[in-house]
Structures are given as structure tokens and as C-alpha cells.
Write a structure and sequence with these properties.
Blueprint (H helix, E strand, L loop, with lengths): L6 H12 L6 E3 L6 E3 H7 L6 E4 L14 H24 L6 E5 L12 E2 L10 H12 L4 H4 L3 E7 L1 E3 L4 H11 L15 E3 H12 L12 E5 L7 H12 L9 H8 L1 H8 L3 E2 L2 H5 L9 H9 L1
Parallel strand pairs: 1-2, 3-4, 4-6, 5-10, 6-9, 7-8
Helix pairs in contact: 1-7, 3-4, 8-12, 9-10
The structure holds NADPH dihydro-nicotinamide-adenine-dinucleotide phosphate.
NADPH dihydro-nicotinamide-adenine-dinucleotide phosphate binds next to helix 1, helix 3, strand 7 and helix 6.
Amino acid sequence: MRGGSGFVGRELTRLLRDKGHEVTLISRQPGPGKITWGELESQGLPPCEGAVNLAGENLINPLRWWNESYKKDLFSSRVDTTKALSQAIAASSSPPHSWVLVSGVACYKPSLTAQYTEDSEWTPFDLLSRLVKEWEAAALLPENVAKTTKQVIIRPGAVLGRDGGAMKQMLLPFWLGLGGTLGSGRQPFPWIHVSDLAGIIVRALEPLADTPPSSSPQVFNGVAPALNTNYEFTKELGRVLRRPTILPVPGFVMNALLGSERAVILTQGQKVIPKRTLESGFQYNYPDLTSALKEIVN
Ligand code: NDP
């Protein structure tokens, strides 16, 4: 698993180990239970049943200024790692039965009204959607390998959990009573609890029972079925924390702080429906904001 040391990776590793699986992390840092990128390139993929890529430079890294070098790192940390892993799978003498890429919902154009499912057509329209295009294209396996290795792409919304992601940066200001809506607050806020995302990844890793893998990847939207706006999220987080949320942050401030190209992930949003995820029978532990935020805060 690449990116396994991160926020989602730690949750996934815990869940897989609880189910009795052995997990090897591919990391920039050597260590027990890990291999490095260099080792992956020189020695190939160790025998395994499934592979997942979760690597990626943090998009909201507060320590980095939004500039060309940061954008380059956002792309290379995702596209190059995905390419390295898909090439290692293709070159393996015994490829895994599943290959899962976790990308994002930035491929769907922000809108207050449009609803997107996994079947929605999309073409890149800005920097982040171009990133998703290149990222997902890098995951594609050659046709002969795709006959035996199931390819899955999971597109999560904001991943909510105690130990990382957006919540880690939001909890303190909200605790201090400094939380508020971002931009207009009317924008959709697609989200998922980290343990549900880990559950969706685990299901994606399971081998297909009867049908042979298809040459194109199966896509699953990794979002909770509840459709919420940023206003609803803000008010619910304030309610669960018992803190006021009366200080809205205007869109132009977000643009100035983060750079408009990435502020869009907070000031705009998409109504994303997890149609195929629900059809697959996946049972969410946290289908609504109240249950997800209570678990995180308590
Ligand atoms: P993290 O920020 O926790 O990072 C995951 C891992 O990526 C790190 O542990 C690190 O592994 C590796 N990494 C970080 N920077 C770089 C870099 N510059 N080059 C290569 N590898 C790097 O990510 P999350 O767990 O939050 O997210 C996992 C994936 O899901 C990411 O690709 C992210 O874009 C995507 N995603 C996340 C969302 C969220 O809300 N968290 C929302 C939508 C998508 P190591 O140090 O071991 O090399």
C-alpha cells in the first residue's frame, strides 16, 4: 500500500490487520513493515493479493505557500506514484487480484444544482480536475494484466476523522468559537467518515467472485449518502461541539489565504451521489453528519 502511513492509510491498515491481512507499506521512509519507492523500482512488487495507492502531498498543507513548486509536488506525488505502482503491477509475474486508486471528487464541476454519480461524464475544467484526469489515467493497466487484476477507482469527498484531514485543522478554531461558513455556505460539501472510506477500499480489494475483471476501472464515489452544504456542516459541527459558528470566512479571504485554484475545494462544491457504492450493498457506519461528527468529537 502506497501512502499507507497517512491519515486514510492508517485507518485502512488497522481495518485490514483486524481482518487478518498482512500489510506492507510503500513509503519514502524505510522502516519495519515498509519498502521504499527505490526498492519497489529495483526489486519489483512483492507478492500480494491487492495494491492501493493513497500517496499524495497534502493539498491543504498550511506550511506551504501556493506556488508552482507546490503544484508540481501535488501532481508528481500522485501521478508518478500511481504510475510507478501500476507499472510494477504490470511487470509482476504474479500480479495482485485487485488494484485500487483513491483519487477525488474534484473531477466533477462545482455546481449548486447538478448531481453527479459515477456514470456522469466529465472533462477537465480547472487545475484540480486536470490532476484527477492525469492521476486516474496513470492507474490504467495494460489490457492483458487487466484480465486478471480488477481495477477500482474510489473518489472520496472531504474525509472526516479525528486523526487527520480537514477536521484536524478545523477542530481548534471551532473549539475556540472561531468557526464559520466558508464562502457563501450554500455550496455542497461532499464528505465521508474515514472508517467508511476504509470499508469501501476493503470491499474494493476483495476479489471478484464470478465475473472476470473488465479492461476499464470500476468507479465508486466515496461520499456519504447525505447531501449537505457547507452551512449545514458548519452548523452541525458547532452544535456537536456546543460552540457558536457566527464568523463566516468570505470567499475572497479564502482565495487570498489558499490561492483561488485550491480554495475552490472549500468555497465551491459538488452534489456527489454514491450511486454505485450503494448499489454494491455497502453499509455505511456514518451515513449522516450527526453520527459522523459525534464519533469524531466524542
Ligand atoms: P495524507 O496527507 O495523510 O498523505 C498520505 C501519504 O502520502 C503520506 O503518508 C506520505 O507517505 C505520502 N506523501 C505525502 N507527500 C508526498 C510527496 N510529496 N510525495 C510522495 N508521497 C507523499 O493523505 P490522506 O490519507 O489524507 O489521503 C490519501 C489520499 O486520498 C491522497 O491521495 C489524497 O489526495 C486523497 N484524498 C484525501 C482526502 C482527504 O480529505 N483526506 C479527500 C479526497 C482525496 P510516506 O511519508 O510514507 O511516503
